[in-house]
């Protein structure tokens, strides 16, 4: 089988001349890449804060430029095109990373700090008094509501709330004892 000449190539210009054009474009791209990769990577690194990520994004931008090199090399400023592609890739990447981080934050279990000893004692003491007294004490001293606000919320007279508070504090006083370290010795 004998090789045939490309009918689209002018006579006298066989495959060797046709291969020179892609090789020349490849060398041109290599020079373009070498001249710009560090500068653009530094800019994207400053934007993302992650060198490895910046290198990957810039490599992707240069791959896209290589795929379109015939067109890109004709631009007034091919470096600006590659920089813009890298910047857009970085912005998209940061946006996706933010979405993922927000999702992970919502999935994370929230651990509350365990209550200290005094709080445990208070919770136990509150659990041991009547429901109305407990609710009145919590609303007054923890939620900061006034007697009038508690009365309105509970649908009772203010005198009733004052009675609940008095009896609730007395019940708590009987259940809570403050022991000084010196008393324990």
Write the layout of secondary structure elements.
Layout (H helix, E strand, L loop, with lengths): L14 H34 L2 H17 L1 H4 L5 H30 L9 H11 L3 H12 L4 H8 L3 H18 L5 H4 L1
Q: How does this structure look, described?
A:
This is RNA polymerase sigma factor. Belongs to the sigma-70 factor family. ECF subfamily. InterPro entries: RNA_pol_sigma-70-like, RNA_pol_sigma-70_dom, RNA_pol_sigma70_r2, RNA_pol_sigma70_r4_t2, RNA_pol_sigma_r2, RNA_pol_sigma_r3/r4-like, WH-like_DNA-bd_sf. Pfam families: Sigma70_r2, Sigma70_r4_2. Residues 33-98 form the RNA polymerase sigma-70 region domain. This protein has 185 residues and is mainly alpha-helical. Helix content is 75%, strand content 0%. It contains 9 helices and no strands. The chain has helices spanning 15-48, 51-67, 69-72, 78-107, 117-127, 131-142, 147-154, 158-175, 181-184. Helix 1 (15-48) packs antiparallel against helix 2 (51-67), helix 2 packs across helix 4 (78-107) and helix 7 packs across helix 8. It is rod-shaped, with a radius of gyration of 38 Å. Mean pLDDT is 80; it is low at 1-14.
């Amino acid at each position: 089988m004998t090789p045939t000449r490309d009918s689209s190539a002018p006579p006298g210009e066989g495959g060797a001349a046709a291969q020179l054009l892609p090789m020349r474009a490849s060398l041109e791209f290599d020079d373009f890449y070498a001249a710009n990769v560090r500068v653009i990577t530094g800019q994207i690194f400053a934007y993302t804060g992650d060198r490895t990520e910046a290198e990957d994004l810039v490599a992707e931008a240069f791959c896209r430029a290589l795929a379109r090199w015939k067109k890109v090399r004709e631009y007034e400023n091919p470096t600006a095109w590659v920089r813009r592609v890298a910047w857009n890739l970085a912005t998209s990447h940061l946006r996706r990373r933010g979405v993922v981080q927000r999702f992970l934050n919502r999935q994370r279990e929230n651990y509350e700090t365990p209550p200290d000893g005094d709080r445990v004692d208070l919770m136990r003491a509150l659990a041991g008094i009547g429901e109305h007294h407990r609710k009145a004490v919590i609303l007054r001293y923890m939620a900061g509501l006034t007697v009038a606000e508690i009365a309105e919320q509970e649908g009772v007279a203010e005198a009733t709330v004052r009675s609940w508070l008095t009896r609730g504090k007395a019940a708590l006083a009987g259940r809570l004892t403050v022991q000084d370290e010196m008393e324990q010795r």
